Amino acid sequence: MSARIAVPVFPGTNSEDETVRLLRDCGGDAELVHWSEADALRRFDAYLLSGGFAYEDRIRAGAVAAHDRMMDFVIAAAGAGKLVFGICNGAQILLEAGLVPGTGPARRPTAAFAKNAPSAHFVCRHVYLKLAVAPARCAITAALVSDALVPAWAAHAEGRLAATPEQLEEIVSGDHLAFVYAHADGAIDAAAVPNGSALGCAGLVNRDGNVLAIMPHPERDAWNFNHLDRREGDDVLAPSGGAAIFRSFVQALA
Amino acid sequence: MVSSGASGTANVALRDDELSRIEERLGREPSVVELHAFDAQWSEHCSYKSSRHHLKRLPTTGARVVLGPGEDAGILHAGVVEGERYGVVVAHESHNHPSQVVPFEGAATGVGGIVRDVLCMGAEVIGLADALRFGSIDDCHPEPLDSARDELSRRTHQVYVAESAVDGIGAYGNAIGVPNVAGDVYFDAGFDENCLVNVVALGIVKESEIVHSFAPKDADGWPIVLVGKATDPSGFGGASFSSLSLDSDDAELNKGAVQVPDPFLENVLMRASYRVFKLLRELKISAAFKDLGAGGIVGCSAEITAHGGYGAQIDLDAVNVAVADMPPEVIAVGETQERLLWVVPPEIVPEVLRIYNELFTLPEVAFNARAGVIGRVTAERRYVMRHRGEVVMDVESDFLTGAIHDELPYTEVIRHAGAVDELPAVDVETLFPQVLAHRDVCSREPLYRRYDAVVRGATVLPRGRADAGVLAPIPGSRLGVALAMGGNPRYGRIDPRYAAEHAVLEAMRRVVAVGAQPIGLTDCLNFGNPRKPEQYGALLAAVEGLAHAGTELDLPFVSGNVSLYNESGDGLPVPASAIVAAVGVFEDVGDVVTPGLKAPGSTLLWIGSRELVVGGSVLADVLGIEGPLPELSYGGERAAVGIVHDAIARGVLRSCRAVHDGGMLTALARLAFDAMLAGRSIGAEIDFGNPLCEAGGFLCEVSDASGIDLTGVLRVGESNDTPELIVNGVRFELPRLYEIWSQPLAELYP
């Protein structure tokens, strides 16, 4: 029996349908679990927290959702070594739940995705995620190549990694910096970062490599029809681009 | 017997003759609730009393029309997928007055309302667009200045209005998870005191599963279920507020009439409603669903029943409220947002309530939000409302909701005849950079990047990257939908009728330029005070123009909106603004024309008017000259569309842009910029009489022009592998042009 992936839906989640669709197109067995049916989360083998504005991003993006009952199950699952993947709002929730970088106890965050800078506004921009750790460092990225570039869309108002200098140092020394922002050719500089994120951080992994949080949305540049520069003759309905990281996630569960 | 007589007519906009008509029909003085109910229902905003009879001139039928104007949204046949017919649902609305008074909330609630209009047709909401018209930001400064009264500060205010409205639209659309894929922004001093915020929403629905906005057959006795936010005093008097001119002295007072947005609640309401649609499908049950807009509970419950041939009994005590002891007229007609009304058979009520209240926990999502039964449908066509056991309203349903109309005097708009103006000698070298930096041409990205253009994962062409937005809305299907808007206020100032025709043409051309087949239109008529004959005349001229263009192009209008009383404190109307949205479809979204020049050595073709008229153009604005608008040739237009489609069918079209603000040269620059952004360094060399004139058409990059019928087509140049544009012998460096084009708004909105 194949591993089952839950996509929890909090009040305010908005990217659940395309997330499930892409998981299925990549061979995953995924379904939505609603906040009023939280107990159902117990039955799953892996979790993908999708984008949105859970609980209206009150206090700070992800802060309220991190204390939702659904997260009791996700925190327990992460502790038991199950795979947990968060995208955008899902990533914010994982940080607020203390699961990534995971350098403190659960629900005691040691870093946050804070308001974008220098412009504090929502930004919708095409970006590339560049793998900054060895692929095998994180189970979810294990099937990617070294230095993999994954196309995605940044679409958030709170995506700037913020932490104390000591904690940033721990993120680097503990090899938690999973992804950085890059240009299409793989070059890395401040202009590639859409939100002023510390370390150019686009994604973080926990110590055990089973929890990954990324800010940009690979599932929005994941089928050939999403690519502005697709090649002639490509099947427009075929998964590609950002689907690579979903495939890697599904393969890790095989 | 209705309990209390009117305590006075203060705070209602009803005219004396309308009041007498009501008293005569009721045979008594109306109650306070009735007075406010008629005030809302008979307002211009709800009744379209001065425009409805003229709007009949618009073409609204055709093979593609599944549902024309009359319900909350129109529906066009999009295509057949696996034997199932799909419709694209489209609605168009303005939120002008609220956005002027409190821009963030006003614009946000506009999005919420239009989304519910599409949702309530049983559709999944798939896309948004907005046409924005703000005051002039010329010579403005991003930092607030000391003196509140000086001119610069007034300009700074315009920067604020624009930014807040955009942030409001973004905050709402982003949170509910509907991508914003199309639209435009103009800045013009004519909107200094009255901005325009027009919003369009798109949905997708199986044609066999459409939910209508009126109670179905055999619905006598069915429960009426109110869903959503607890009714509060916000938005009381909203409908009449929208039907009066804004007076800046009343700014604080007017704020009370603006509603409060809650996109978080709407997000959950949408998803819960999708679940109810699934229930209806499974049980094969017909029901009615309608947004509560202008006129609140009265407006919605009266229309959803009366339009099905019924009456209604409503119990105000059953309404979930946010504040205790609100007067009945406030509960009855207040325009609290995020509310919808169902008429469903009694046997499914428990399940509908369970979905909203337990599965989607509405009461926990927002204070006292929920779904609950507030009344029932009656065979007798009377609208009866009770509050604390007393009847506070008892009127004939059809009298309340029936068509009323005002025959108003108008002045016929004489077309600016004038001879074709002399073409000034154009110094392209000096003028092109000025045109690219012009407020109507420069990059809008600093604003639209605040909108989520890609949520739902179905975006093919996001906002700002091409002439139209394109979506692939049905998972696993190649069917594509394109959306674009048009409506040039510089044209509106010159000639309301021709501006309306050009708006249709611009929206249509944009959809064609991305490779789609245009199938239908919506419009929003934003005009001044209809009680002023010259302003009413402008409205009627615009309707005539829309009707003519739609008929000539065989494109029906399936929904629309009229917004009147858009004028300044001095009584000057906004520039005539017939704003049009065009919907297009692709059988195979793989045929989309992607942005940017593709290869050096391509032939550049101009398919369009050869007339070198500059009236209304950005060039004319830069030069400070006036003149008539470009002539229209519908025969030429149809032929041009045919040539573009033919080039796509032959597989020779590499890229394409519709020509509008800034002329052919701007279109060429955009093609080169898009190539540059995609890492292709491609330039071009062209020769054309006046490449800054805006007579409409298409600039196309083709790999091979040999198979194309070149009648009416001009070869203007070729692409090459230099980072330059060479125009009539004048050389421009592309990176420099890009900087000129991308900077102006970025300075104001970093």
Quick overview of this protein structure:
The complex is a heterodimer of chains A (254) and B (750). Chain A has 254 residues and is of the alpha/beta class. In chain A, 19% of the residues lie in helices and 23% in strands.
Give the total of beta strands of chain A. Answer: 11
Name the assembly state. heterodimer
Q: Span from first to last CA of chain A?
A: 9 Å
Share of helix of chain B, binned: 25-40%
Outline type of chain B: globular
Structural class of chain B: alpha+beta
Averaged pLDDT of chain B, please?
Answer: 91
Strand-residue proportion of chain A: 15-25%
What is the strand arrangement across the widest sheet of chain B? 8-10-7-11-9-12-13
Using the coordinates shown, work out and report the CATH topology of chain A.
Rossmann fold
CATH architecture of one domain in chain B: Alpha-Beta Complex
Please give the most extensive interface between any two protein chains, plus how many residues each contributes: A-B, 44 and 49 residues
Order of helices and strands of chain A: EHEEHEHEEEEHEEEH
How many beta-strand elements of chain B?
Answer: 26
CATH architecture of chain A: 3-Layer(aba) Sandwich
CATH fold-level name of one domain in chain B: Phosphoribosyl-aminoimidazole Synthetase, Chain A, domain 2
| Strand residue percentage of chain B | 15-25%
